[in-house]
Structures are given as structure tokens and as C-alpha cells.
Amino acid sequence: MRLLTPQEAATLPREALETHIVSLLRRCPGLLALRGAHAHLLRLRLPRLTAAFALSKLLASCASISDAAAASSSYARNLFDQIPDPTAFCYNSLIRALPAAGPVLAAYRRMLRAGSPRPNSFTLAFALKACAAALAPAEGRQLHAQAFRQGLESGAYVQTGLLNLYAKCEEVALARTVFDGMAGDRNLVAWSAMIGGYSRVGLVNEALGLFREMQAAGVEPDEITMVSVISACAKAGALDLGRWVHAYIDRKGITVDLELSTALIDMYAKCGMIERARRVFDGMVERDIKAWSAMIVGLAIHGLVEDALGFFSRMLELKVRPNNVTFVGVLSACAHSGLVDDGRRYWSTMQNLGIKPSMENYGCMVDLLCRSGLLDDAYSFVIGMPISPNSIIWRTLLVASKSSNRMDIVESASKRLLELEPLNPENYVLLSNLYASNSQWDRVSYMRKKMKDNNVTVVAGRSSIEINGYLHKFVVSDDSHPEIKEIRPVLREIADRVRRAGHKPWTAAVLHDVGEEEKEVALCEHSERLAIAYGLLKTRAPHVIRVVKNLRFCPDCHEVAKIISKSYNREIIVRDRVRFHKFMGGSCSCKDFW
DNA sequence: CTAGGGTTAG
């Protein structure tokens, strides 16, 4: 577009000048461009009112520019301070441009203190969105109270803003309260936000149930709704459901856009159908870094290392810039097949690309070194990390030190782990099992004592299985399932077969502090066995029994699943959260851990 | 000027 000269600007009417300002700012993708436009507008020596208009519009543009939030937000603050009588629109724009919940709340309070203008529903909607993005429910609650005080709580946008805030912060019950309060005017956005909230925390049946309710209420889903539904299936490993939902998407002619495709790739990969994931990926018209990353991570999960690395180079050739998540895929692929040198090379590639390693990236490197038996390298790598290692990293190191019988590393790593997380039951399960398998009984009882002293109780093992589109959940020794009477005999038979197969009814040392005779009961009522029993009861071969388990350091569930598989001639896959041991060529089975 | 979506290590 042609820029105006000051002489031209002086002769133009106000409307024309404002049009010029608006279309000029529309062309500003980043902070630099915006500053350029700002300088141009200053040169025009606009009349007072038009200048204020320009500043407001400049401020509004700050929210949508892509530059580092910090730089653009301080620029936005500067602009705001230059506006003599900021309107509500100005405050709203400022709030939109601020990066964190704290500053947003401060700006909101400043507006209240000024007395005028009053916040409107836009103000609250923006502020709530900022709190949701920053995962700051405390600040959000304050805004919730404010919404009441300002009489703005009934606005549709404020309500969905609140709903979404709670949903994003995983406060599902609060989100539901808001949702229930909306009864009459729930629109597609509200339904989607609520479904997304359930999906985020893994309440798949609730997400799916609400999805059905939504349809019954005559609200037609769009691609955004379906992303949440599909990712709920991915989280739960609900393959049949996921396929049904995919078919539904096709049947309804819902656009499978970039985000939905990515969700589908993730779902198929996490549910074990990597070929379908790949087909979705191949069918995409555009692929951004998240799509590539989902695909690469999916391939890595399945141990398809060459493919994962091949996709990575193809991605680089297409000039798509990798991010931390991409390198999680690449590095974990290397770790899964012992490619230490390649892993190290990718590590420096990452640094050369200016990507600051995330905790997960460090974790991948530790895992890579550990799996290759380079315990000393792994240990010095952990010690040399510029950020303080988290508990996952210490546990990775511990498990590997145990397999290599490096009790010296176990010693110091366990110390650090318990300092870091003295209240996490997972750590005690891990450590006491570790010492038990090394016959260090004094250590085992020390762990128990420490647990007791710290008032730590063990997390129950939880598993789920999908039957006919419904997810059945089981907890250790849980008899609340409506069909428990039919499940029990199957369980007993499983226990018999396990014993006949010569499997020692050994179980986690602290998980069940029980006598010998009770041990077998505890063993046969492990959650995954309950789930497998239910699967045997409800399905016939060749239906694959897929069970999802919550605990990673579960001592023998995969081994037992294998025995049951063989004995019943059924395919049984036990998956812990995302990893399929079936595809790992044994490299990741519990046997190696313990 | 408002609200809902996808990828992360053990």
C-alpha cells in the first residue's frame, strides 16, 4: 500500500485517515513492522483525536503479533501510557497483549481503580483467556468474583471464558458447575470447552457422554469439538471408539483440518495403529511442526526408528523448523534402538538450531545413555545439567543403575530422589522393589519406615479396558464393577493358569504388605488382571485385549499378561500410558527393569 | 476487539 505524506494527511478527512491507519496496521505481522507503522503515523502529525485512535489501534495490534511476548507487551504498556484518556477498548487491548496472568490481573485492577471506564464483558473475557492460557486458576477465581461484582457473570462470553479457564486448569468440577449454570444458552463453544475439559483429564466416558448429550440437544459438532473427542480416545487408548469417531467425522463431512489430522495421527499412534496414523499424515495438505512431531513421536513409540529419523530429515528438507517435542521423538527413537552416537549428534543439532533443551529432552538423553549401558556418562550428564533434574530423570537413572548393578549410583540417585519428592509413593515402590530384588532387606524395611514416617500411602494400580465403546476402569482389589460376580471366577482361573505356568506369585514389596496366604489374592486382583479377566469374559478371539495401566514401574504385569496370552491363546497388550511394549522388541519390557 | 482444538522423556 502507498504511505501518506504529512501534507496529504493534513488534507484528508478523519474517516479516511482512520481507514488508512486500519489497513496499514493490518499489514504488520510482527513487532518490527508495527514499530515501523508507528513511526510512519508519528510523521503524519495526526490531529489529536485521530492520533489517539491510532494509538488504540496500534495497541490492539500488539495482541496478535507473533514476536516474543515480553517485547510486545512492554511495547503495549508504553503505548497504553501515551493514551490520554484510555477507553475500555484500550484497556482490553492492553490486557490482550500481556503475557501472564499476574500482569493481566494488575491491569484489570488498575482499570477498577481508575473508576472509569468500567470493565465490560470483553475485558473479562480477555482477562479470563489470559488466565486460562497461563494456567492460573487462582487469578481466574478472583476474576470470577469480579464478574459477579460487575454484574457481568451472565454474559455468554464471560461464562464460556470461565468454563474454559476451569477446564484448562483441570478443575473439571468447577467447569461443570459453570456449564450447568449455562443450561439454556449453551452453544457449540461451551459444549466443546466442557468436552475438552473432560478429555484433558482423561475422563473419556464423561467426554463421550457429553458429546452424545450435545447431539441430543441438537447442537452439531464441528472440527474443534472433534479434536477433543479424538484426543480423549488417544489418552484412553480406546481404539474402537477412536475409529468410530473417525468414521463419524467422515460421515458428517466435518473438515479434517490441520489440528484434527494431528489429533488423529496421535490417536492412531497411541492406540497401536501406526499404519493408519501414517495414512492420515500422508493425506494431509499442509503439515506444521506439531503434525510432524506427532508423526515422529508416534513412529518412535512403535520402535520404528528408521522411519522416525527418515521423517525427521524429510521435515528438515522441507524447511520446517523442529521444536523440543520433535527432538523428544528423535532422541527417544535413538534411545529405543541404542543409537548413542546418532543421539549425541541430534543433541548437538538441536543446540545448533538454537533450541533450548527441555526437561523432557534431557530425560531422553539420560535414557539414551542408560539404555546403552553408559551409566557413568549418564550420571555425569545428569550432574552437569544446567537445570535441576526432575524426579523422572532420577528414576530413569535408578532403574538403569539397578540393571547394571551399579549400587553406587543407586545410592546417590535415591538420595536425591527422596530429597526432591519425599511424598511421592511411586518413589518408594520403585526403591523398595529395587532393594528387594537385590536382597537388601534392611533397605526395604528402611523404605517402609520412611514411608510410614512421611505418611505416604501407595498409589493404587489402575487399569482400563474398552468394551463396546465403553471404558471399564479397575483398581486393585476393587469389587465395585457391576459384573464383578462373573469376573471373579475368571480371575481365579487366571491365577491357576499363572501358577501352573510356573510363575512365582511375587508382587511389589510395599504394594502389598500382606502375609503369604493373602499374597496370592492380592496378586490375582491386580487391576490389569481384573481388566484382562473382564476382556476374556466379554470378548472372543481374535479380539485383541488392550489394557491401559497407570503405573510404569509395575513389576510384573507385562510378564503375567504374556503368560495369560499364551495360556488362553489370545492377544493381550498391556500398555502403560502411551508405550506399547509389544512393539518394543522386548527392549522396554518390565523384565529388563526388574 | 470477545469464547472452544493438535505434538513432550522414565
Automatic annotation (TrEMBL):
PPR repeats: 187-221, 257-287, 288-322, 323-357
UniProt entry tagged with the keyword Transit peptide: yes
GO biological process: RNA modification
Record's keyword terms, sorted: Repeat, Transit peptide
Limits of the DYW domain: 502-594
Keyword Plastid: no
GO molecular function: RNA binding; zinc ion binding
Descriptive protein name: DYW domain-containing protein
Species of the source: Panicum virgatum (Blackwell switchgrass)
Lineage of source species: Eukaryota, Viridiplantae, Streptophyta, Embryophyta, Tracheophyta
